[in-house]
Write a structure and sequence with these properties.
With 271 residues, this protein is an all-alpha fold. It contains eleven helices and no strands. Helix 1 crosses helix 3 and helix 6 runs parallel beside helix 9.
Length: 271
């Protein structure tokens, strides 16, 4: 499916753009219906067998989203209105009730992302690809996020932050009950105060960059957190004996975890 490749560097007329979009939409709709319908009746690919070409259909769908983004017709900052989840749900709704198992859409979704993982891993570092695919971001953003994570992985701050992110994830799994909000009055250690200040400063900037589709910029902003993160883990006992202090520190780490994992799950970069 290459109906969009010629849009750059020319600027086609609105009529041509509408025609191209119509062709792209029809192509995408047909691939989505094929994937959901054939999968839904129990004919998913097995091993090397794929008699109905569902792997090819998934790659075609991925290519269509990529080309819409490359042609400027689907902004990297956009979360919609064209989304993979919405597309697959709509495709499933066209079949009679009860004909498509409830597991079909999530299984097809996972299948498509797995195809994308394999495709990207042939060009980029596997860890960077896994870091992005772990979040299952909007399909048209996936390639740009992988490129951003690949560049981030070359920064001197990357290894330390990735290791810290992995450690934070493990600590948060040990939290008892819901993790609440940070109580700044309980931040008594200089290192935890510095980390809280860094998160408060960097988070809105990184979020704005993410929403603008500047994934590399968002990760570059994150890189600025390395020193306060390293200092925190060097000087602060997270699992303190005092339950209130422990819960507050886990709440701070939860905020940091959210900042770290906006573009990708960077713990996947840890060696």
């Amino acid at each position: 499916m290459n109906v969009l490749y010629w849009l750059d560097p020319w600027e086609p007329s609105p009529t041509v753009v509408i025609a191209v979009l119509t062709a792209a939409v029809l192509f995408i709709a047909e691939r989505a219906e094929t994937l959901v319908g054939i999968w839904g009746i129990g004919l998913a690919p097995t091993g090397e067998r794929d008699p109905f070409g569902l792997r090819r259909a998934a790659l075609g769908l991925i290519s269509a989203f990529e080309q819409l983004a490359a042609g400027g017709l689907l902004a990297a900052s956009a979360d919609g209105p064209l989304t993979l989840d919405g597309l697959l749900e709509l495709a499933a709704s066209t079949f009679p009730e009860g004909k498509i198992p409830a597991t079909t859409v999530p299984e097809v979704r996972a299948f498509i992302y797995e195809r994308y993982r394999n495709q990207l891993a042939s060009e980029f570092d596997r860890n960077a690809v896994d870091a992005v695919i772990a979040l299952a971001p909007p399909l048209h953003q996936t390639g740009a996020r992988v490129r951003a994570v690949t560049a981030f992985g070359q920064l001197p701050e990357a290894a330390s932050l990735a290791a810290a992110n992995k450690r934070i994830g493990n600590l948060l799994k040990k939290a008892e009950g819901d993790i609440g909000l940070v109580d700044t009055a309980r931040l008594t250690e200089p290192a935890e105060q510095a980390l809280a200040a860094a998160v408060a400063t960097l988070r809105p900037q990184a979020q704005a960059q993410l929403q603008a589709g500047d994934f590399a910029g968002s990760l570059s902003t994150l890189a600025q957190a390395r020193e306060p993160v390293d200092a925190f883990f060097a000087d602060v006992m997270v699992m303190a004996e005092d339950p209130a202090v422990r819960a507050n520190r886990l709440a701070l780490l939860s905020q940091l975890h959210g900042l770290m994992n906006q573009v990708a799950d960077i713990s996947r970069l840890a060696q």
